[in-house]
Amino acid sequence: MSVLTESTSAWEPFTPRGVASFARASYERLLVVQCLMALMVALLSVWVLAHGFFPTVFAAIQQLPDTGQIIQGELEIPDGSPRLLAEGHFLAIVVDPKHSGEIRSPAQFQFEFGGDSLLIFSLFGVAEVDYPADQSFYFNQADLQPKWEAWAPDILGLAGLAVFLSLFLSWNALAVVYCLPAWLVAFFANRDLNFLQSWRLAGAALMPGALLMGVSLWLYGIGAFDLVKLCFAFGMHLVVGFIYVFVSPLFLNPAVSASGNNPFSDS
């Protein structure tokens, strides 16, 4: 028996044979698997935020002056000298009203609050965000600390929900794109696969990449991965899905003609 044979049941989407089995499974089975994988990545994303970024934000708020605000696009604080409010492995928060550049942190992200704008330093360069001229914000410890303590759990929950929904929607959209290559591979390899089945197979083929992204997020959260490696893993998780799209159809049963006879044989 050939090793490229079809599995009789869909229960795991991490091997080419397992991915291929979802072509015959119900959409509900695929939906459950996708929801579980999206939930795993969403929870890991929330964990990274909660343990890597939020403590630095809270520590920075505690170092703010008793009075201060951003009003009509201008930062107003008692002390205008540059200072580091808080610093962690992932994030550093700085106040530098003149954007003098005196403080540069080795953290992967640095938020620098200036006189009229926020500078964000990262691997991708520097982004400048102007303060809204028609809005005002608190910039002091007395007002921001209770608000942060009240809103931080909600922000984490919304972030997790956003990751979950974006993953689920993107996977279903990518399955529409990937199903045609899967069908073509099956067609030229003489495998039994229609368009609807190829869409389910393509949806399952994205799950190994999602597992890779989840592991990468965990490694990033514990400090084993830096931002460069995380970005590389993000690109690789798309490549892994494409590889499974091309390989998995080979594990389906061969297509059989309607008559079951060889049209080139003698009558």
If you had to describe this structure to a student in words, what would you say it looks like?
The chain has 267 residues and is α+β, with helices and mostly antiparallel strands. It is built from six helices and eight strands; from the N terminus they run ααββββββββαααα. A hairpin with a 3-residue loop joins β3 and β4.
Write the layout of secondary structure elements.
Layout: H1 16-21, H2 27-62, E1 69-71, E2 74-76, E3 83-87, E4 91-95, E5 109-113, E6 117-122, E7 125-130, E8 136-138, H3 141-188, H4 195-205, H5 207-221, H6 227-247
Parallel strand pairs: 4-5
Antiparallel strand pairs: 1-2, 1-8, 3-4, 5-6, 6-7
Helix pairs in contact: 2-3, 2-5, 3-4, 3-6, 5-6
Concise overview:
The chain has helices at residues 16-21, 27-62, 141-188, 195-205, 207-221, 227-247; strands spanning 69-71, 74-76, 83-87, 91-95, 109-113, 117-122, 125-130, 136-138. With 267 residues, the chain is α+β, with helices and mostly antiparallel strands.
> What is the multimeric organization of the chains shown?
single chain
Strand content: 5-15%
Q: Gyration radius, to the nearest Å? A: 26 Å
The overall average pLDDT, rounded, is 90
Provide the number of structural domains.
2
**Classification by helices and strands:** alpha+beta
Which H/E pattern describes the elements? Answer: HHEEEEEEEEHHHH
- Largest beta sheet: strand ordering: 3-4-5-6-7
Give the helix proportion (percent range).
Answer: 40-55%
Shape label:
elongated
Number of strands: 8
Low-confidence stretches: none
Q: What distance lies between the first and last C-alpha atoms, to the nearest angstrom?
A: 30 Å
Q: What count of helical segments does DSSP give? A: 6
Instruction: Summarize the biggest pleated sheet.
Output: 5 strands, mixed
